[in-house]
Structures are given as C-alpha cells and as structure tokens.
Amino acid sequence: MAVVSGHSHGSHHGHAHSVPDSVAAVAWMVILGDGIHNFSDGLAIGAAFASSITGGFSTSIAVFCHELPHEIGDFAVLLRAGMSAKQAIMYNCLSSLLCFLGMLIGVALGNMHSATEWIFACVGGMFLYIALVDMLPEMTSVDPKKGESPFLHLFLQVLGIVMGSSIMLVIAIFEHDIKRAFG
C-alpha cells in the first residue's frame, strides 16, 4: 500500500492515508457505508428476534431480500472503482461481519421493550441516509465517453427499485402467513 499525503483536487491534508493508489476513494466509502448498513441490519434483526421469533424471521427475510441485490451492487461498484474481484469479495465479506455485531447488540438492547421501538426508528433513518449518501452519487455517474448509456442505467435503476418495492409489498401482503409459518 502506498501512503498518500494529499489529494489532487485542491484540498491538502496534513495527515497520511494508507490507501492503494489503484483504488478510488469511492470504493472505501462504499465499504464504510456498507459496514454501517450491515450493522444497522443486524440491529434490526436482533431487536426483532428479541421481540418475537416470528418478527425475527420476517425481518431476516426482508433484510436478505434487500441485502442480496445491495451486495451485488456494491461488488460491481468496487470492481468499477479499481479493486480486483478477490479484494472486492474480501472487503464485502469483512463489512458483512458487522451484521453479527449489530445483531448481538440488537438482541441485548431488544430485551428492553422501549428500546426496540427506538432501534427500529434509528435503523429506518440509517437506511434512508445510507441509501442517499452511499448509492445516489454512484447512480448519477454515467460516462457516455465509455459507451455507457444513461437510458440503460436509468432502466436498470428503475427496475431495481420496482423489484425491491415488489418484494416488500409481497412480504407486507403475506406477513400474517409468514408469522403463522414460523409461529
């Protein structure tokens, strides 16, 4: 790893960063954002399991449904930012471990009844914040010079949003059946 003591965009910092020259800063931001996101997922799962087994399973299913495409998207962003496939998988898996830490804390805090509501409120806010800060800038970075079609990007983004919304709708519609299946 090379030590970089400044940035070329005009603002120079006095401290050193240990970031490989070949990997864009956006990759490290995605990893950090994904780690916080995974920690939040773990908090929600832990608090849900502390409340009830059925709530825990339905929350786990919902998290799985949104995490699968999210992790694939993060993997693609990391590759595009200059990481090798092996590095992208390793850092994606490393940030995913924070979900277990969040789950342990969520279970511990979820045993206090009033804490569960606060956990769900904070996690919901984190999901919105992370989606806007982590994903929105990457969604708008289309490079027509590299042959990327803005219409294809728009189509894929809308398709992802519709698929995610559809999955959440199906879970909401069949929530009682899911609770009965695990209850």
TrEMBL record:
Topology relative to the membrane: Multi-pass membrane protein
KW Transmembrane (keyword) present: yes
InterPro entries, A to Z: ZIP, ZIP_Transporter
Keywords (A to Z) from UniProt: Membrane, Transmembrane, Transmembrane helix
Keyword Membrane: yes
GO biological process entries: intracellular monoatomic cation homeostasis; zinc ion import across plasma membrane
Subcellular location: Membrane
Residue ranges of the TM segments: 89-109, 115-133, 154-174
GO CC annotation terms, alphabetical: plasma membrane
GO molecular function ontology, one term from the record: monoatomic cation:bicarbonate symporter activity
Family as reported in the entry's similarity comment: Belongs to the ZIP transporter (TC 2.A.5) family.
Protein name: Zinc transporter ZIP4 N-terminal domain-containing protein
Organism: Elysia chlorotica
